[in-house]
TrEMBL record:
EC top class named in words: isomerase
Encoding gene (name): fucU
Protein name: L-fucose mutarotase
Organism the protein comes from: Methylobrevis pamukkalensis
Substrates-to-products reaction catalysed: beta-D-ribopyranose = beta-D-ribofuranose; alpha-L-fucose = beta-L-fucose
Cited SUPFAM superfamilies: RbsD-like (SSF102546)
Keywords linked to the UniProt accession: Isomerase
Annotated InterPro entries: RbsD-like_sf, RbsD/FucU_mutarotase, RbsD_FucU
Keyword hit for Isomerase: yes
Source species, domain of life: Bacteria
Any one Gene Ontology molecular-function term assigned to this protein's record: L-fucose mutarotase activity
Length: 154
């Protein structure tokens, strides 16, 4: 265990987060998502696990370290409910609250049609499966940048 790191972030997830670059995507998915088959197409090539925690809890841990892409564009996508793309299930509303808290502002999730989500996840850097059992607990995060500080700039 390390200081200031959320203890649910295991070494494999930490390594993936650190290895991602600006514009890379991470698919955070629920237990029903075909994580192994989809992850075989990603840069990492296999699924990562943050088991036994909900999607909102996993999102909070990831966003404690991962900067989201600029406020000029949406950075967190959500799998749309089939035949009801504008409906936000409870799990998605809870994740929206975590994203807003991490960003310190309203940062609305954007919808991704279910099968388009599978395709986008195949192109991701990695897939992280949570213990989320509620349907539509699947999200796509785009990594942003951390601006240099005056002390650390070249």
């Amino acid at each position: 265990m390390l200081k200031t790191l959320d203890p649910i972030l295991n070494a494999d997830v930490l390594h993936a987060l650190a290895s991602m670059g600006h514009g890379d995507t991470l698919a955070l998915v629920d237990t029903n998502f075909p994580a192994a088959s989809v992850a075989s197409h990603t840069v990492l090539g296999h699924p990562l696990e943050i088991g036994n925690v909900s999607a909102p809890r996993a999102m909070r841990a990831i966003l404690s370290l991962l900067p989201l892409d600029t406020p000029l564009q949406p950075s967190v996508g959500r799998m749309e409910v089939m035949a009801a793309p504008d409906v936000l299930p409870e799990v998605q509303r809870e994740v929206q609250a975590e994203v807003d808290a991490a960003e310190g502002r309203s940062a609305p999730l954007y919808g991704i049609e279910r099968f388009a989500f599978y395709e986008a996840a195949r192109s991701a850097f990695c897939v992280v499966r949570t213990g989320e059992t509620r349907f539509y607990g699947c999200f796509l995060l785009t990594k942003g940048v951390i601006a240099p500080t005056s002390e650390g700039s070249a």
